[in-house]
């Protein structure tokens, strides 16, 4: 490897698989799906989702429960877990101006915006909450994380649809490489289990219609896949240069060694039929890291469980990495958390590299014969993983690839 290595020294996770890294890792490695009927979506054509279990917003204080949208609550809780694992305390920085925050989201505070729009229509403009925008804007998770951590460095909120969280991690690595920051708290957050988002995705025929058996609905790479299940959550990293981590005696969990991004420039919702943009992103990440496809032992695939995405992505993996890389999608467990997905899946990739355990693809029982890659399913696979690839592809044709190494 010849690329710049950004050390991951802390990970925080809030997903449908649980709150905290231990619960998440246990459920993802076991391949236990989380999809169920969602009360918020009752009466809609697709009333199921993957939701964070037992989440208590008040754990971040009484203000968080009423003044932060759910996506911001997820981001802050995950950020504090990552901070603690990295050995930092909020506000106790050698130089707070050298601490940056990058939190991506595709939807932002959509629950707040939907609720306040209903107030506007039913009760008039005088009853709309003055907190609507401070809760609902796309940058507010990033802003609140910076406030809570007392981080005075650059604070950014990339939006690249379902690649947003991965884009944030790639941008964080670039900030460390260029010296714009010494420490970056980066990731993605999303809380889109709302009537508008569920209805819009259903109208697009993007969601699975297996509503009579929600737990088996998200089945990436399966011959019977018929769409994704809406998810939510947050994934956060604490990232530093290797030298900075070493100087304070911190042991990296793993390292981000390559980052590639591209645009399909093809269609707002459908991937390029030959995966042009995905290929460009993966190639760019490999070149950035000074690696070849043969060096990649594992791919945490975007793997949405839609017919088209899985077919295109598997062809890209086969052509660029060959037959040696094991492939799985953790969306069989978590569903699709949209803009948070890339950060959550990068975290699972980092844990795979650290622990030598490849999570299986939940609900994958009959692999589509067109998927000519080494799919991991039924049970986890154990073995050394030196380099993993995490793919994230979003509406608008926006693609991000992250290479994570031991």
From TrEMBL:
<comment type="pathway">
    <text>Lipid metabolism; fatty acid biosynthesis.</text>
</comment>
<keyword id="KW-0275">Fatty acid biosynthesis</keyword>
<dbReference type="Pfam" id="PF02801">
    <property type="entry name" value="Ketoacyl-synt_C"/>
</dbReference>
<dbReference type="InterPro" id="IPR000794">
    <property type="entry name" value="Beta-ketoacyl_synthase"/>
</dbReference>
<dbReference type="Pfam" id="PF00109">
    <property type="entry name" value="ketoacyl-synt"/>
</dbReference>
<comment type="function">
    <text>Involved in the type II fatty acid elongation cycle. Catalyzes the elongation of a wide range of acyl-ACP by the addition of two carbons from malonyl-ACP to an acyl acceptor. Can efficiently catalyze the conversion of palmitoleoyl-ACP (cis-hexadec-9-enoyl-ACP) to cis-vaccenoyl-ACP (cis-octadec-11-enoyl-ACP), an essential step in the thermal regulation of fatty acid composition.</text>
</comment>
<dbReference type="InterPro" id="IPR018201">
    <property type="entry name" value="Ketoacyl_synth_AS"/>
</dbReference>
<keyword id="KW-0012">Acyltransferase</keyword>
<dbReference type="InterPro" id="IPR014031">
    <property type="entry name" value="Ketoacyl_synth_C"/>
</dbReference>
<keyword id="KW-0443">Lipid metabolism</keyword>
<keyword id="KW-0276">Fatty acid metabolism</keyword>
<dbReference type="InterPro" id="IPR014030">
    <property type="entry name" value="Ketoacyl_synth_N"/>
</dbReference>
<dbReference type="GO" id="GO:0004315">
    <property type="term" value="F:3-oxoacyl-[acyl-carrier-protein] synthase activity"/>
</dbReference>
<comment type="similarity">
    <text>Belongs to the thiolase-like superfamily. Beta-ketoacyl-ACP synthases family.</text>
</comment>
<dbReference type="InterPro" id="IPR016039">
    <property type="entry name" value="Thiolase-like"/>
</dbReference>
<feature type="domain" description="Ketosynthase family 3 (KS3)">
    <location>
        <begin position="3"/>
        <end position="406"/>
    </location>
</feature>
<dbReference type="InterPro" id="IPR017568">
    <property type="entry name" value="3-oxoacyl-ACP_synth-2"/>
</dbReference>
<keyword id="KW-0808">Transferase</keyword>
<feature type="active site" description="For beta-ketoacyl synthase activity">
    <location>
        <position position="162"/>
    </location>
</feature>
<dbReference type="GO" id="GO:0030497">
    <property type="term" value="P:fatty acid elongation"/>
</dbReference>
<keyword id="KW-0444">Lipid biosynthesis</keyword>
<dbReference type="InterPro" id="IPR020841">
    <property type="entry name" value="PKS_Beta-ketoAc_synthase_dom"/>
</dbReference>
<protein>
    <recommendedName>
        <fullName>3-oxoacyl-[acyl-carrier-protein] synthase 2</fullName>
        <ecNumber>2.3.1.179</ecNumber>
    </recommendedName>
</protein>
């Amino acid at each position: 490897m010849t690329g710049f290595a950004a050390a991951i020294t802390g990970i925080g996770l809030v997903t449908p698989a649980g709150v905290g890294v231990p619960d998440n890792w246990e459920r993802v490695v076991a391949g236990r799906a989380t999809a169920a009927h969602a009360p918020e979506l009752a009466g809609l054509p697709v009333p199921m989702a993957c939701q964070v279990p037992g989440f208590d917003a008040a754990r971040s204080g009484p203000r968080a429960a009423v003044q932060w949208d759910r996506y911001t609550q997820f981001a802050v809780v995950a950020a504090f877990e990552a901070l603690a694992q990295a050995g930092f305390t909020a506000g106790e920085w050698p130089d707070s101006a050298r601490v940056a925050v990058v939190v991506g989201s595709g939807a932002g505070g959509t629950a707040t915006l939907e609720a306040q729009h209903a107030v506007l229509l039913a009760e008039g403009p005088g009853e709309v909450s003055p907190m609507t925008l401070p809760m609902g804007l796309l940058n507010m998770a990033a802003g609140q994380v910076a406030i809570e951590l007392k981080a005075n460095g650059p604070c950014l909120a990339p939006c690249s649809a379902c690649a947003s969280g991965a884009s944030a991690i790639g941008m964080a690595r670039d900030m460390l490489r260029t010296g714009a920051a010494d420490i970056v708290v980066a990731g993605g957050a999303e809380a889109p289990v709302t009537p508008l988002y569920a209805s819009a995705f259903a109208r697009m025929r993007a969601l699975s219609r297996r509503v009579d058996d929600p737990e088996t609905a998200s089945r990436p790479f399966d011959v019977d896949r018929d769409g994704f299940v809406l998810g939510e959550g947050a994934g956060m990293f604490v990232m530093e240069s290797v030298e900075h981590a070493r100087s304070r005696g911190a042991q990296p969990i793993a390292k981000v060694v390559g980052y590639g991004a591209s645009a399909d420039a093809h269609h707002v919702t459908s991937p390029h039929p030959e995966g042009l943009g995905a290929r460009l992103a993966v190639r760019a990440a490999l070149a950035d890291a000074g690696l070849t496809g043969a060096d990649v032992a594992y791919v945490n695939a975007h793997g949405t469980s839609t017919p088209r995405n899985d077919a295109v992505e598997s062809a890209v993996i086969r052509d660029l990495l060959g037959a040696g890389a094991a492939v799985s999608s953790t969306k069989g467990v978590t569903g699709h958390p949209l803009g948070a997905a890339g950060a959550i899946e990068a975290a699972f990739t980092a844990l795979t590299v650290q622990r030598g355990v490849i999570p299986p693809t939940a609900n994958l029982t009959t692999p589509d014969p067109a998927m000519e890659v080494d799919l991991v399913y039924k049970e986890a696979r154990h073995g050394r993983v030196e380099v993993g690839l995490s793919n994230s592809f979003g509406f608008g044709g926006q693609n991000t690839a992250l290479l994570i190494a031991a």
